[in-house]
Amino acid sequence: MTTATDTSATVREPALLGQTVLVIGGSAGIGLATAHLVHAEGAHVVLTGRDPQRLERVAAELGARGHDAFDAHDPRSLDEFFRSLTAPVDHVMVTAGGPYYAPLADMDVADACRYLAAHVGLTLQVARCAAQIVRPGGTLLFMGGTGARKPAVGISITALLTAGVPALIANLALELAPIRVNLIAAGFVDTPLSASLLGDHLDARREQLRATLPIRRVVIPHDVAMLAVHLMTNTALTGATLDIDGGQQLT
Fold first, then answer.
1. Three-state SS for 232?
2. Long-range CB contacts (< 8 A, 24+ apart) of 24-27?
3. Is the peptide bond between 52 and the residue preceding it cis, with omega within 30 degrees of 0?
4. Most buried in the list 46, 207, 216, 236, measured by CB within 10 Å?
């Protein structure tokens, strides 16, 4: 017989109850999915994004504690945003940015260098700013990828970051301790960014992945969000790069 006591014992307390999570790039894709999930887990949410109208809509849906629209790759705007925060936060997740694809013959070298500087600069600046606002034991989460681990034409710049950023994350974990710093390395995730990159080839890519991935489905933003929440709550993890690609590297 199931008693009332037995039933109540199965009710789980929200994993992030009362905590504050800042999502940089939180109005679309993986950032949006993470914002929804941490909110469902009891967290107060602070959001940033580049599209003011979309950000306003998401902030209203989630009852966000705060939101600000700006380009996170603009150092001055990012610094001003962090300075505007009046209360500590527990976790920061950064999902802003995307990959850089260009074969050497067609590459604008100056543009490629600007991309590299902006990507690394965002990571460093968020880390330095967050050190002043994140509570001890809290988390910094950054996004990377797995797709450029195998050499291919056109992915040189993304491959450089794919190889180098995990080392940067490990070093930041030491410098910022006891704040924890981790990297989520994703394969293909079915997001608006993926749709914009693939265009008319999106459906074919989805079908290919459904047929070849060991999980027999496409990875979606919620999958990544669940890993992000795990990294926020598992206080034994820091300096790590965790892959989430549905087994894509195995094929």
1. helix
2. 24/48, 24/72, 24/92, 24/93, 24/94, 24/95, 24/96, 24/126, 25/49, 25/72, 25/94, 25/95, 25/96, 25/97, 26/55, 26/58, 26/93, 26/95, 27/51, 27/54, 27/55, 27/58
3. no
4. 46
Q: Could you tell me if 45 and 62 are in contact, meaning their C-beta atoms sit under 8 angstroms apart?
A: yes
For the domain spanning 15-244, the CATH number is 3.40.50.720
Place of tokens 């260098």: 113
The three-class DSSP label of residue 138 is: strand
pLDDT in tens for each of the 251 residues of the chain? 455 555 445 788 999 999 999 999 999 999 999 999 999 999 999 999 999 999 999 999 999 999 999 999 999 999 999 999 989 999 999 998 788 899 999 999 999 999 999 999 999 999 999 999 999 999 999 999 998 899 999 999 999 999 999 999 999 999 999 999 999 999 999 998 888 888 999 999 999 999 999 999 999 999 999 999 999 999 999 999 999 999 998 98
Alpha-helical segments (H) within 85-241: 109-130, 156-176, 192-198, 202-212, 221-233
Tokens of 92: 């920061």
The tokens for 18 are 């009362």
**pTM given for the model:** 0.92
